[in-house]
Amino acid sequence: MQIIIIGCGKVGSKFAQMMSDEGHDVVIVDSDSGAFKSLGLAFNGLTITGVPIDQDILKQAGIETADILIALTPDDNINIMACQVAKEIFNVPKVLARIFNPEREDVFHQFGLDTICPTNVTVDVIKSFVFEDKDVTKFNIGSNLISFKREKVQEKYEGKRISSIKLKSGLFVFGIIRNGTFNFAYPSLRLNKDDTLLISEKID
To answer: Which residue range or ranges hold the RCK N-terminal domain (predicted)?
Structure first.
């Protein structure tokens, strides 16, 4: 799959590394060339420095043949504009914008844009998995239904990195609950025996 990621912050860089490790063709765009340092030496995708809503920059990133564009900058407006350009001008089959203002989510959906609001997701996840006794919970993220389930860390993974966990296709570790506190997952995070994994799966 050919994936374009807009924004090389914490989320963008981690997602780019993950997709690259899984064998996808990844291009990541950021206006700050220094942001690419967070990708590490193992990243084998392409990096492009430039304004992410500039059509020439997007063409350089391969948008004309891209399968998906995901906008993950800290700016809601840039994320939405990048997705609009991708969808309306270049007919990219799948676009996803991260937004931080949950009040704007419905408006963007009216324009046919899929969004994910980390504010809503994080609050819901913490509420359901830290303070409630639920093993499986489902959330609507954009136009998709995502299932989250809790699993105790298996003994064989104690002391190992999250990246060592083997899951079936379509599942990934979204975060962990450690000592009653939710933490986002990242590949190098080492697991403790009392950790609870928060595993996500797209249902539709």
So the answer is: 1-123
The two beta strands, 171-178 and 196-202, are antiparallel
3-state secondary structure 77-145: HHHHHHHHHHHHCCCCCEEEEECCCHHHHHHHHHCCCEEECHHHHHHHHHHHHCCCCCCEEEEEECCEE
Note the pLDDT tens digit of each residue in 147-182. Answer: 778 888 988 989 999 888 888 887 888 888 887 777
Q: Report how far residue 13's alpha carbon sits from residue 5's, in angstroms, rounded to the nearest whole number.
A: 9
Same domain? For 126 and 144 the reply is: yes
Indicate the number of domains in the chain.
2
Structural domain harbouring 189: 120-202
The reply to whether 187 and 156 lie within a common domain is yes
